[in-house]
Amino acid sequence: MILGFSFRMAVSAGVLCAAGLLAVVPAAADVSGRAEPSAPAGPRAAAPHPSLLHRPGTHVRPRAGVARLPEVSALSWLVADARSGEVLAAHNAHRRLPPASTLKTLFALTVLPALPSSVRHTVRAEELRGVGAGSSLVGVAEGRTYRIADLWRGVFLNSGNDAVHVLAELNGGWRATARRMQAEARSLGAHDTRVLSPDGYDTPGQVSSAFDLAIFGRVGLRNPDFARYCATVEARFPGGGGWSYAIHNTNRLLSGTRGVKPYRGLIGIKNGYTSKAGSTLVAAARRDGRTLVVTVMNPQQGGGAAVYEEARSLLDWGFRSAARVEPVGSLEAPRAPARPGATTLPAAAAAAVPEEPGSAWTEAGLIVGAVGLGAAVVVLVLRLPVRRSEGS
User: Fold this and answer.
1) Which among 107, 162, 349, 362 could bridge 140 via Cys, Cβ 3.0 to 4.6 Å?
2) CB within 8 A of 1, min separation 6: which ones?
3) Per the UniProt record, which residue ranges are transmembrane (predicted)?
């Protein structure tokens, strides 16, 4: 069999087939794949660089007419919108300091989901070993039976380290609970926190930050049990033999004791004090549909009430100014960047996306088909027997 065209002609024909289709497709792809015009830029300023809050000093981005920040003596503080996670203002937000009992917010986040509140437990002597000297106690006694909910009220209201020890033992032990708390902090993007004593007792090397504590308080409020316990002002604690006694929340901004006026709209969260940490506080309040979370760590002036009064002034400023400042950061954990070539949809979800007529998927198919057609012609010709003519 003698073919009437040469090998070069066959290759050229295949290439021309592909080129012909490719010449048509780009115009259609340009029309159907064109992005919608972006919305005009709003009045908000550009988002701050993620590292801004890691820089020392005070950070706030006010618009015109915003009230000045109050005078605050704390070594570190932060004001954030609990719903969005936007940080409205902060001072030394990532400075690592001893957290005292505000670390119990992380303890609760970690352990609350693992222990049903209605379960009853009789305390054993070994569960109370290791409670630090000078710890705040709620009065947990060996041999006495408590509901898990009783112990949690002892943690949130009286900051009872004895109750923390019992709950930690029920959660797998003291060290295991510390490891789980550490893992929980990392999962939330709280990288300033190092957990060594789950109750917040002064331990060399144990630290957190205003930023991390605000994360713990904000996430905790999403748990109904956490939110209920941290907002409880007074409760009864079992004393044995059917007798009980009153316990009161030591967060004076909530309970209004010892010369501190209660803050209108306050919904918790947790206070703390040790000789090394000074006074610490994570507080949240809700007004007119907005919830703010504030952290204050170790005020340098004003005595024992200073942590509450400085938190009060920051909350007041936040409610007045929240709509008129640009955020200086976010409590949301940054998402890991997508790997090159990875789809942003799960495979099943991607397969379920309907193909629209004339979409970029259709054009891609035409392109592949055109190239495949050209290649097929070349392969076919190469496999055919060919008799060369004289002189070729």
Assistant:
1) 162
2) 385, 387
3) 364-386
Instruction: Please tell me which residue in 104, 135, 209, 270 is annotated as part of the active site.
Output: 104
- Catalytic, 244? Answer no
Catalytic residue among 76, 101, 136, 321: 101
Instruction: Please write the tens of the pLDDT for every residue from 122-147.
Output: 999 999 999 999 999 999 999 999 99
Type of residue at 102:
T
Note the pLDDT tens digit of each residue in 224-244.
999 999 999 999 999 988 899
Give the Cβ contact number of residue 359 at 10 Å: 16
Q: How far apart are the first and last CA of the chain?
A: 16
Q: Is the pLDDT of residue 70 over 70?
A: yes
| CA angle at 24 for the pair 18 and 29, rounded to the nearest 5° | 115
* Nearest by Cα to 307 from 283, 343, 335, 334: 283
73 in catalytic set: no
The yes-or-no answer on residue 159 being catalytic is yes
CA-based nearest residue to 277, from 98, 70, 157: 98
Which of 215, 165, 161, 226 minimizes the C-alpha distance to 185? 215
| SS (HEC) of the chain | CCCCCCHHHHHHHHHHHHHHHHHHHHHHHHHHCCCCCCCCCCCCCCCCCCCHHHCCCEEEEECCCCCCCCCCCCCEEEEEECCCCEEEEEECCCCCECCHHHHHHHHHHHHHHHCCCCCEEECCHHHHCCCCCCCCCCCCCCCCEEEHHHHHHHHHCCCCHHHHHHHHHHCCCHHHHHHHHHHHHHHCCCCCCECCCCCCCCCCCCEECHHHHHHHHHHHCCCHHHHHHHCCCEEEEEEECCEEEEEECCCHHHHCCCCCCCCCCEEEEEEEEECCCEEEEEEEEEECCEEEEEEEECCCCCHHHHHHHHHHHHHHHHHHHHHHEECCEECCCCCCCCCCCCCCCCHHHHHHCCCCCCCHHHHHHHHHHHHHHHHHHHHHHHHCCCCCCCCC
Cβ burial, residue 349 (10 Å; 0-12/13-18/19+): exposed
pLDDT reading at 332 higher than 80: yes
Q: Given a cut of 90, is residue 260 above it in pLDDT? A: yes
Catalytic residue (one of 76, 159, 197, 330):
159
